[in-house]
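Input structure tokens:
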């Protein structure tokens, strides 16, 4: 489709004979010339300006024909000594954007730290990960509906075809968070996040299998320290058990499956949604998917009578569950807000730093015993994740015929 072009030929014919402009006519009350860029019939030293407007932006186009040398018009052109007003970048706006972005990163990390601490405390006292996951989706759904009701975020209009395309994403999203909670209930927070550092490995494998996106040699090389570091950390982990290990690995598989499915199915322009809207819809759908499974597998275990019978502090469990659920939804919401402001590579690096912060904080808070070899394995794995986020920017050179 050709773009609609608008051409400006800044040539204006005022008379058929030469005319001189007096200094008084060109002077303003402040003594400055108002027509510093206007020259009489002499040939212009600068090309005239042409701009064309397409659907997205202004683009430079070919210069229009120069005015007839025989005409006595006045041609507007740029002058190197133009004293007129110039646009100055708004430094305050740039500083404000940087401050907002830094605050979002801080909130992202803070919400994630609080989620992992309170969620771990809940799972240690209440050994029902399906019910815990259901509560988190329920609180998130209430927040989403509240935002739409109060017009804090635009309520989307969803078609049946869009819901059908989102359903697979909601299913793997539900399983991903369920497996994460199952792992957190079995092993230390630091070990769960060390295993989840293998997400790039699953992303590369699934993209090659289902999208035909084969990794470069640099990407494959960056996966080696990730796999080796996780293996080293697993062999020396004090809280290691197979249930927690395989739950975290299953979480990696399902979470990366969600990313691959979103690329495979949400490709039509009319089906595309912004990240926050898509996450909001998936949260509500995950609640309805999780509810029957949790009630069937675990029953309704959150009644005060049942909790008191098991010796659990009811008020404390309710409070920590609510805080964990709020932080769970908040950190993912903020994550998508950051992704709208920065490139995916920058977001990936920030996510790597977030994982380091969560691991260190959880080790200090829960006083998790960590051996030097375990620390080395975790460090190597996280370094591999950082390297992966950098080499993803390297694109293979096109093959020359």
């Amino acid at each position: 489709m050709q773009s609609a072009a608008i051409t400006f030929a800044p040539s204006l014919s005022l008379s058929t004979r030469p005319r001189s402009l007096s200094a008084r006519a060109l002077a303003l009350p402040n003594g400055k010339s108002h027509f510093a860029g206007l020259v009489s019939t002499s040939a212009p030293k600068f090309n005239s300006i042409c701009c064309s407007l397409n659907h997205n932006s202004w683009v430079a186009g070919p210069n229009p024909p120069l005015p007839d040398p025989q005409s006595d018009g006045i041609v507007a052109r740029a002058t190197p000594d133009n004293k007129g007003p110039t646009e100055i970048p708004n430094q305050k706006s740039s500083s404000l954007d940087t401050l907002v972005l830094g605050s979002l990163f801080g909130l992202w990390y803070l919400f994630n730290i609080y989620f992992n601490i309170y969620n771990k405390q809940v799972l240690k006292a209440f050994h029902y990960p399906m019910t815990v996951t259901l509560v988190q989706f329920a609180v998130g759904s209430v927040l989403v509906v509240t935002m739409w009701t109060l017009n804090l975020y635009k309520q989307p209009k969803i078609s049946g075809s869009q819901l059908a395309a989102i359903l697979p994403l909601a299913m793997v999203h539900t399983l991903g968070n369920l497996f994460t909670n199952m792992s957190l209930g079995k092993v230390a927070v630091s070990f769960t996040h060390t295993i989840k550092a293998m997400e790039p490995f699953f992303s590369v494998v699934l993209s090659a299998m289902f999208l035909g996106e084969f990794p470069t040699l640099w990407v494959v090389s960056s996966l080696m320290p990730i796999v080796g570091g996780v293996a080293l950390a697993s062999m020396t982990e004090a809280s290691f058990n197979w249930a927690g290990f395989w739950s975290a690995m299953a979480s990696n598989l399902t979470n990366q499956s969600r990313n691959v499915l979103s690329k495979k199915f949400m490709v039509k322009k009319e089906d595309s949604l912004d990240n926050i809207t898509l996450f909001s819809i998936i949260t509500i759908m995950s609640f309805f998917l999780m509810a029957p499974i949790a009630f069937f597998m675990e029953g309704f275990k959150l009644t005060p009578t049942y909790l008191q019978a098991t010796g659990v502090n009811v008020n404390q469990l309710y409070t920590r569950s609510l805080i964990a659920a709020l932080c769970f939804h908040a950190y993912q919401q903020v994550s998508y807000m950051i992704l709208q402001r920065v490139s995916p590579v920058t977001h990936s690096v920030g996510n790597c730093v977030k994982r380091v912060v969560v691991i260190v904080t959880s080790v200090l808070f829960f006083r998790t015993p960590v051996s030097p070899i375990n620390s080395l394995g975790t460090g190597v794995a996280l370094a591999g994740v950082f390297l992966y986020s950098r080499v993803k920017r390297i694109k293979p050179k096109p093959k020359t015929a």
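The mean pLDDT is 79. The first helix runs from residue 23 to 26.
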